[in-house]
Amino acid sequence: MKSLGLDQQKFYCNTEIFLYETCKNQLEGINKQMYDPDTVNPCLKYQTKMDKCKNGVKENERKILDNCWKHFYDIFKCSESWREQNDTQREYPCQKENDVIMDCITNVVGKSIKDDQL
Q1: Where does the source fall among the domains of life (predicted)?
Q2: Is the pTM of this model over 0.90?
């Protein structure tokens, strides 16, 4: 998952979640006395991979959001310049910068991974 984009990473995670859920569902159909769930967890390897994957996606999202916030500096500079010129008659010139950060955040948050679903 080192060089996967966020969408590919999430697709990969969905596969890991599917494998874990399949394992878990199969266990529910097995007679519970065949194994001790406190000492034996046949699905642990799937759960571990799934958890690692989810954490990787969240970390990737955090990094992308951090980059989004860097655009705030551009908005700040643009807005300050506009205020300093006291040019309130002119249309707000920073809409492009504002749109960039909103798109950036929406692309991450709008597709954000949830703990209970992906």
Answers
A1: Eukaryota
A2: no
